[in-house]
Amino acid sequence: MNSKSLVLSRRSFSKTLALAGVGLTTSAPAAVARRNIKLGFDNFAVRAMKWNAGQLIDYAAKLRTDSLFITDFAPFGKNFGDAYLGDLRKRAADHGIQIVLGSWSICPTSKSFKADWGTAEEHLALGIRMAKALGSPAFRVVLGSGDDRKTEGGIEARIADTVKVLKSQRSKALDAGVRIAVENHAGDMQAWELVTLIEAAGKDFVGANIDSGNAAWTYEDPLENLEILGPYVATSSLRDSAIWETPKGATVQWTAMGEGTVDMKTYIKRFAELCPGVAVHVETISGFPKEMNFLQEDFRTAWPNARAKDLEKFVALSKKGKPVEPHRSPSPEAEQSYQLGEIERSIRYCREELGLGPA
């Protein structure tokens, strides 16, 4: 073998290991202090795999995580029975993994609401029962998306409708020992608006599922979003974001952990202080940009009550960021590989750089 072939061979070998999620290092990394915070992933991060609940548990075990966030009912097929869910709970526990459960909109007037599981009240009741059977400490739900801000009555009306649904199932949640975790989802609510919802419904059984990526979609610095929501957090779906200035405002593109503009080391340090006992679940949804055009005239149509101090901190963060190239997978198989690469790099970063999860 000549020297040129040897170099190419080594490069190919390195590329193969990188694709397999194996890191090549010339020396052992310095030990990072463990934070005693569970680490897991949100199944939406690997949505292209279309895995069922058992396969998700197996993947969590492969990644050596101690939590798994299943945020929709699809991985359970149509089997919502307590016996089946109890078996999944045991299967996960055998690997040292807790399961946290979630689903979608419980706001009957949201554009995102679907009647696949009956009324909003029936949907919420089903989720509470399933969460109890799985041993999940919380049940994640959402109000809707940014589209709801332009509906009749605005987001305030949608918050009021969601509060009614939550209150209707209060006794079930308390009896089950399951906390309802409402997410700041897809541009629907800023942190202070979600706090308003939680306080109105009752913080004895309602909390927040904090999403650091979605914070950037509501013109918030994720760190400031954490300061506001932190005392209410019951679950999490976290990722990094690249944020940079544009002539119309800013652009946000979600990234793997540690690869964006957000200071994730500071974020996790504060998360540990504000959200004791709450697992960190990584939800990578990378590759596409979202324009945040707050300099356009119609900004106030959807955000009439946007607070200047929140926007100022978001703008300051955008000034620190640099543009990143969008990603588009050429095939379904390539998208699967891309999603696996994003979550595996993120989990490795969280374990090795942030001290999360088991060593």
Defining traits:
disordered N terminus, 359 residues, alpha/beta, eight-stranded parallel β-sheet, TIM Barrel
Structural summary, described in words:
The protein has 359 residues and is an alpha/beta fold. The chain has a single domain (32-352), classed as Divalent-metal-dependent TIM barrel enzymes (TIM Barrel, Alpha-Beta Barrel), CATH 3.20.20.150. The chain has helices at residues 3-19, 53-63, 82-94, 120-134, 154-168, 170-176, 191-201, 212-216, 222-229, 264-274, 299-302, 308-318, 332-352, and strands spanning 39-42, 67-70, 98-105, 138-142, 179-183, 206-211, 233-237, 240-246, 249-255, 280-282, 289-292. The chain has an eight-stranded parallel beta sheet with strand order 7-6-5-4-3-2-1-10. Strands 8-9-11 form a three-stranded antiparallel beta sheet. Strand 2 (67-70), helix 3 and strand 3 form a beta-alpha-beta unit.
Approximately what portion of the residues adopt beta-strand conformation? 15-25%
CATH architectural grouping: Alpha-Beta Barrel
Which sequence of strands runs across the widest sheet?
7-6-5-4-3-2-1-10
Quick one: overall form? globular
Count of domains: 1
Subunit arrangement of the protein = single chain
Mean pLDDT: 92
The CATH class name reads Alpha Beta
User: Which segments are poorly predicted (pLDDT under 50) over 5 or more consecutive residues?
Assistant: 1-28
Going by CATH, what is the homologous superfamily? Divalent-metal-dependent TIM barrel enzymes
